[in-house]
Structures are given as structure tokens and as C-alpha cells.
UniProtKB/TrEMBL annotation:
This is TRAP transporter substrate-binding protein. Pfam families: DctP. The keyword Transmembrane helix does not apply. It comes from the Bacteria. The keyword Chaperone does not apply. CDD domains: PBP2_TRAP_SBP_like_3. Signal peptide: none annotated. Keywords: Signal.
Amino acid sequence: MKKYFFFKPLNQQTGIFYFLMVLLFFSFSCNGPGGVRVIKLGHGLGVKHPVHEAMEMMASLVEEKSKGQMQVKIYPNQQLGTERELVELLQIGSLGMTKVSSATLESFAPMVQVLSLPYLFRDDAHRERVLKGEIGKQLLLASEKYWLRGLCYYDAGKRSFYTKNKPVDSPEDLRGLKIRVMESNTAMNMVKGFGGSPTPVAYGELYTALQQGIVDGAENNPPSLFTSRHYEVCKYYSINEHTAVPDVLIVSTKVWNTLDEKEKQWLQEAADESAVFQYKLWEASVEESLRELQKAGVTITYPDQSGFRESVESMYESYRINQPELYTIIEKIRNTE
């Protein structure tokens, strides 16, 4: 039986980090001047990223709906830690909210890993129906027993490979290449299936890792490639669209459980409305990012997906044999009309 571990032993460096964070954010959701409820939200994206813009809108909506009684303060650019560190801060109650890729969330809530599987969705419409339907709601709440509650999904587009020295036109082109992946077993298994060498690197450290040759490339969506300026190092973008891993806006249950029903309604409604806005914003951002990447001299190719799909079909067979409870969810997703 597969075992999951949700807390790792603290080494000295990690212990100091948590001690400082607990001191700094001892009041993760507190009453500010005039009795205002303040919730702190940290994330790793830049301020020009469309997901950050959606969270800014969410914060404005919370203040508007509450008539100033509730505020969400946002700390972008990994000011408070990496995605994994931020999730752990939510678990211990030292931070109120964060945005996390569902690929990172799977380390905390195993059921969510199904969303990281390659070529899971037939198209954008199929993905939207799944995420907005009962399966999507079930997965949002799957992390609740681990002190994390999903509020909504943000569109993180489709992920493809970008590399320094050559395009990835087929899985064979990944052989011998070190490819940055998120801290996700599913992502690592996928890159191995394609023939590459998966190398977990924090998003905020990836630019330097690419420059120094620690990795030969990475995989992400067009807006992330553009806003991170990774295109300054990687001049090949091979759009094979292997995954469509959504972002998830999550709140610590230690915060959620302190809110009254009206406050919960303000926060949930603001999150839902920001998600609708973000989906529209995302589409425009993808188009703009691709134009800007071409202007910057990035070679953009659209390889045949069939070889990539065949390379990772064994992942699904592994779930069928070894994790039938998750395979049932995968089948429900694939059969959603």
C-alpha cells in the first residue's frame, strides 16, 4: 500500500524558517484597526501574472462585500516562502491563504494527484465541465482533513516544454535532459515516461537554475514562461500541451473555522467571482504571451502529440492496478460529457 507523509522532520534551517514565520504571522487572521478582519495571502507568482491579478480582484471584492469589515492582504513573489512552504504554513495556522498548483497540493492531499495526469482532459470545455462539476467540488474539499480547504480553481492553462539548446519535437528529444518539475510525484513520473530526467526546483529559483545549467529546461504555460522571463535563457518552446494542471486558491481550515457564516460567504463569493474573471483574463494573457515570446526570438513549435501520449499511457495502467480508488475518479473524469 502506498504511504503518504505530510510532515517532514525539521532540520535546523527549516526550523528557523518556521520559527520566524510563526513569529511574523502569529495572527494569521486577526482583527485590525476598527475590528477589521485581516487574512494574509502569500504566493510565488509575479505581480503581472494573471492569477495574481485575479487574487487582487478577489481581495477587492472581499472588502467591497464586507463594507470594509474584512480584508485580504497579498504577499506575492515568494516573499513568504515557496509553494510547499506556504502550504505548510497554512497547515500549522501561521498563514491564512495561498495559491498553489494542484500538482504541489497532491503531496498534501493524495486524491488531487489525478489532476496532474498527462492528457487527462479531451479539451478545454471538458476540463471546465469537470472542474465546475461534482468531481471538481469533491477534489476542492479533498484536502480539508489536512487543514486545507479549496475555494476555487484558477486556469493555469496547458503546460509544455521550454528548453535551452534544442526544441522538443518528440519524447526522444528529452533523453538526457534535466527538466525542472514541481514537487509532484506525478510530474516526475510523467517526465520519466517521456524519457527525461525530472529535477524538482522551486519556481523562484528556476531562472538561476537554468542559467547555471542545473537544469536544461522546464515545462509551463505561456504566461508563466513570459512573466518569469525564463525565455531570456530558454529560446525553444515546444507546445505539446501534456498537462492542464489547475491552480487552486486555498484557505487554512484554522482560518475558515474562525469565520462566521457571513464572513465565509463573502470570501467564497469573492473567490468564485475572481475565478470567472481570471478565466477570461487567462485567454487574453496566453495570446499576448505567445506574441511577446516570438518578438523576443523564442522558436515556438507545435509537435505531434501522439508519441507523447503513447509514452505515458502506462501511468494510467499503473493506477488501474495499484490505486483502483483513484482510477475510479480518473474514469469518471474521462467519461464526463
